[in-house]
Hints:
- The protein has one domain (about 5-220): Endonuclease Iii, domain 2, CATH 1.10.1670.10.
- It is about 60% helix and about 0% strand.
- Mean pLDDT is about 85; it is low at about 225-234.
- The longest helix has 30 residues, at about 170-195.
- It starts with a helix and ends in a 15-residue tail after the last helix.
- It has helices at about 5-20, 30-40, 45-55, 60-65, 70-80, 85-100, 110, 115-125, 130-140, 150-160, 170-195, 215-220.
- By secondary structure, the protein is mainly alpha-helical.
- Iron/sulfur cluster binds near residues 199, 206, 212 and 217.
- Iron/sulfur cluster binds near residues 155, 204 and 206.
Amino acid sequence: MNREEKLEKLVKLLRQAFGDAEGLKSSGPFEMLILAILAFEDGLEAAKRASAALLAEFVDWNEVRVSSWKEIGAILEKERISSPGDKAIALKRSLEAVFTETNRMDLDAVSKMPQEKAVNLLLKLKDMDEGSLAALLYLHVGLQTLAPTQRLLRVAQRIGFIQESAMPSSMKQNLSSFVGQRNAFRFHYLLGKLGEKYCFEKAAFCGKCPALPYCHRGAACAPWPADDGNESKA
Length: 234
Ligand code: SF4
C-alpha cells in the first residue's frame, strides 16, 4: 500500500472511531476550542450539552480554568462524556494556555487578525489540546496548508508517513506537501487526537490504538514503557 492509500484508509478508520469534527465550523473561536475537546468520541450534540452543563455549574470559563479537574470531570461524567477525567485535564490545560498567552478568557482576537498573525498566536499556545488547535487553524482561521506540530510529527513518523531519520525542517515540508490542502484539517485533528490519547512521547498504547492496522511502529509493537502521565507537548 502506498502512502496516499494508507492516508485515505487511516483517515476513514479514525473518523469512524473518533467521530467527525466538521460540524465545529459553525462555532466561534472560543466555543470551538471547548467543543473540539468535548466532542471527541461523543459527537457535537453531547459536547454542546456538556458545555452548557459546565456553564450552569461554574460562573464562567475562567472559573472552570481555576477549578479542579475532578470537579470538572464529575460534571462531564454526569453528562456521559467519554474519558471525563482526561477531557477535564485537556480543558483546563487549554483554558490556561489561552489565558497565559492572551491575558483574557476568549479568543475573539484571532477573528480580527491577519491570518499569519492568528496562526502564529495559536501555535504559541503549546498546551492547547491538539484537536482544538487543528479546528482553530483550519476551520476558523482558514489555514490551507498543514502546520505540523511536534506531536503531529511524532505520530506521523511512527505510523510511517515520514522517515524517522529525516531533519525536522524537511519532515515538515514533506508531510505538508504529502497531506495537501484537502486533508489538512482531518489529518491534523485525527492524528493529533491519537497523540493526545494513545501515542505519547514516552509511551504508546498500541494495543488500544485504532491506528494499529496501518501503523509501522505499532506493527512491531514491543511492550512500551509505562505512561508516566507527564507527557510534555512541544
Ligand atoms: S499504533 Fe502505537 S505507535 Fe502507532 S499511532 Fe497508535 S499508539 Fe502510536
